[in-house]
Amino acid sequence: MAPARRPLLAAALFAAAVLLPGAARHGGAAAPPAVLAQARFAFLVPGPGGPLILEVAAVAPAGAPADAAALASAIRAANPGAVPIPPRFVSAAYVLDGVRWRDPVVPWYYAPAGATPSLPPGDALERIRRAAETWSGAGGTPVRFDYRGETADGPGCRGDPAAITYTADGLNVLGWDAIPGNYLGYTCWMRSAPLVEGTPYFELIEFDIVLDPRYPYTGDILQALALHEFGHALGLGHSDRCPGAAMCAGELALIFTEPQPDDLAALIALYGRRPPPPLPRRALVPAIARD
Ligand SMILES: [Zn+2]
Question: Which PROSITE patterns does the record match to this protein (predicted)?
Answer without folding.
Answer: TAT
